[in-house]
Write a sequence for this structure.
């Protein structure tokens, strides 16, 4: 294991077993914390997400964790947001009308149209990345979500997927990566993205 653990923001709603296992396979220890000073100072931080937007947002806002995360992203320090974590970076979500997200990404998460027949969108789907330098690559990611961003946030490199229409699968800027899919559950493709994120933040 490397000396500096990866700090995972305690959101109270995330299942962290898969996140721990994925980074352990890559030789990194993982610590879960709700200490904003550790979040601010750590070389690498993960904002996970499984569960309800409002509950996760309340947990992140408690104790100044939201400001620590926003400062990291604005200063382009190695930060990874996963699934609901990506939506928390947005301005809001239809899941919690009136709740204001961290507003790092322009736009709000909207629910998939129920006429699709199966919501949430669950399972493997194609991720289309633009290529070139950076972390994002095309491949197949594992998704589990009912809400998504539809518009590309300005100033970010965007990867796309499609489920009843195109939606944002991931965004990156420097060593900041936010994935709507779960890289920790996405096999070799996800492991390669996590490795790229680790290298970008070195």
């Amino acid at each position: 294991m490397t000396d500096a653990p990866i700090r995972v923001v305690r959101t109270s709603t995330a299942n962290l077993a898969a996140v721990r296992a994925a980074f352990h396979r890559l030789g990194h220890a993982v610590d879960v914390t709700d200490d904003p000073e550790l979040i601010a100072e750590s070389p690498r931080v993960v904002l996970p997400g499984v569960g309800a937007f409002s509950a996760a947002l309340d947990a992140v806002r408690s104790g100044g964790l939201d400001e620590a995360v926003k400062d990291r992203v604005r200063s382009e320090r190695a930060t990874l947001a996963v699934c609901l974590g990506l939506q928390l970076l947005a301005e809001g979500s239809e899941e919690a009308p009136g709740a204001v997200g961290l507003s790092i990404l322009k736009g709000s998460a909207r629910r998939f149209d129920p006429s699709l027949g199966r919501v949430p969108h669950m399972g493997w789907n194609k991720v289309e990345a633009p290529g070139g330098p950076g972390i994002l690559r095309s491949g197949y990611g594992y998704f589990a979500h009912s809400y998504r961003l539809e518009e590309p946030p300005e100033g970010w490199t965007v990867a796309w997927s499609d489920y009843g229409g195109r939606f944002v699968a991931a965004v990156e800027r420097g060593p900041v990566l936010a994935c709507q899919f779960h890289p920790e559950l996405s096999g070799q493709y996800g492991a390669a993205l996590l490795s790229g994120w680790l290298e970008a933040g070195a």
